[in-house]
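Hmm, what's this shape?
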Amino acid sequence: MGDARPVARESTRRPAEAHRRGAVVAALMLAMALAALDSTIVATAVPQIVGDLGGFSVFSWLFSGYLLAVTVTLPVYGKLSDTFGRKPVLVVGAALFLLGSLLCALAWNMGALIAFRVVQGLGGGALQGTVQTLAADLYPLRERPRIQARLSTVWAVSAVAGPAVGGVLAAYADWRWIFLVNLPVGAVALWLIVRHLHEPQRESGPGSVRSAPRARVDWAGALAVFACGGTLLTALVQGGVAWPWLSAPSLALFGAGLALAGLVVVVERRAAEPVVPGWVWRRRTIAAVNLALGALGLLMVAPTVFLPTYAQAVLGLGPVAAGFVLSVWTLSWPVSAALSQHVYRRVGFRDTALLGIGAAALILLAFPFLPYPGAAWQPALLMLLLGAALGLFQLPLIVGVQSTVGWSERGTATASVLFCRQTGQTVGAAVFGAVANGVLAARLGGAGDLDSVTRALDAGTGEAGAAGTAHEAIRHAVASAVHAVYLGAACAAALAFVVLLCVAPRRFPVLREPGD
């Protein structure tokens, strides 16, 4: 009789714990949806925004400003979540994102809208990094693929639904609603987090968090990282677009960025609790995954940026059909990610990722060999296969890295791999944009001037109905440019393969956790 009450109490505690964790997971999925929908839902409303506010010459900063803010804040939020806990960082990030959304809806000109998008990005950095970290905190290693697959599904659904939702709101309501719609979704996520997320007190020790948060924060390092990242990413985003690569503004930004990078190294070496600690690059596992996911960000630029142009200019598809050719990879990616656990439990994290990135390299390499002009199902099939390959590549690496560190390092480690992936995308957009422009200029007989190539493309696509010699030449030029970009993406995949093979340990040093 004496044991009846504890047993009953334990039996009631388990359903309550499961309900609490389910509510937190729902909040994480809503928060991830906010970040995932953001760029795709805004992209379809650009014509309406420009028509209302003007500022066509700078509208690209609606995306660049947001991307910069997200990228440079990832390592800062990662360290803060390890210092003060995930909940306060996530709450502050969600509040900032919602504040930015409200301000965007109230913007009176393009300059104000860009500034408020940066505020959104300051919150988006906290959402992306902290959600991924909390997913690892909530589930032991054997259950992590389940939550990561759910988050991957959120990204997949957002990629498909974002343009449709944005188009409907812009066409039948007002472009300001694409920002206002964030408020109720974010409010529900914020309420669930505040009510149901209770982080346990952890004892001091290796891989644990102290019962009292450490108040020492490396604000000098955070500011230096923010300034360095912002300067270098601005140089990459605007180089070749707002000014030539070898112009004075470009060289000045790169020079300032390198000087700030040196300052970051000096500041972080002296800091007691650095924002970017040296162990992130001294540990083989984390360093290899950082480099591999940087290469992933690089290669993802090829399909996401250039495939829709290929589908419309070369295959002659409309915008909706072109979007479908790209979106099919969002169907296979989360499925492959969910099934990857059955592979890495047998062969390990590294070898599973090698299998995925090796297949991705071959798929990317096959793209230039598609027949010209070809049928829409051919690139769509390659995208379906590419999504499956990358799902087998990315998820094992993220889960593997998170499983090699304890609670007090997990936020920093997760933020570092996400930061490298985001930086890879930014570098890829700059590098592959230069490659594509160079091929276009050479094929069209230009001297490499971007404006002349753009005018030629506009003229050719505007006269698509009268398929003359000039238009056919432009179709061939676009096909050649996209083929060159895909070859570059295949090289990035091969680089990731070599890095994992030569740098990453065959077996990741996984820490044992309760529940494993």
